[in-house]
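Why should sequence recovery work at all? Because a backbone constrains its sequence more than one might expect. Tight turns favour small or flexible residues, buried strands favour hydrophobic ones, and helices have their own preferences. The token representation captures these environments compactly. In the example below, the structure is given first.
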């Protein structure tokens, strides 16, 4: 993709990405999330609850081995921005419930880059918004 992304294009791509990503994450199999990450051991990075994970295989292994089976998710907001390098930043806010645990708010961000007309996650960050006061 050589043309500069418009705000509307970024929004459309971002919303479609979020829908596809969470559909696979929530309904499985999570191994299929590997298609969203750059297929090597260094390029894609994820910060999951403050722990850095690098590389497609390690990220998918982490997501596949999460201890819950059932996920119920409500997306509150999806914000997108274009980046200087024609990438897309996506910010997601919502609530999720796993198995029979209480629901928690969460935030997740994704930085997508295009390669050969395919969007990949370069950077990702996930946090539950749990406050222990």
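From this structural description, the recovered sequence reads:
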């Amino acid at each position: 993709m050589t043309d500069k992304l418009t705000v509307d294009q970024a929004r459309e791509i971002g919303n479609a990405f979020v829908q596809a990503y969470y559909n696979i994450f929530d309904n499985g199999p999570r191994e299929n999330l590997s298609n969203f990450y750059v297929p090597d051991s260094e390029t894609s990075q994820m910060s999951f609850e403050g722990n850095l994970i690098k590389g497609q295989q390690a990220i998918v292994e982490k997501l596949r081995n999460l201890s819950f089976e059932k996920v119920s998710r409500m997306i509150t907001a999806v914000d997108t921005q274009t980046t200087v390098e024609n990438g897309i930043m996506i910010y997601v806010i919502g609530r999720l419930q796993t198995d029979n645990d209480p629901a928690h708010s969460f935030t997740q961000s994704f930085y997508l880059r295009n390669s050969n007309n395919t969007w990949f996650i370069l950077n990702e960050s996930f946090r539950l918004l749990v406050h222990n006061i």
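A few observations help interpret the result. The mean pLDDT is 94.
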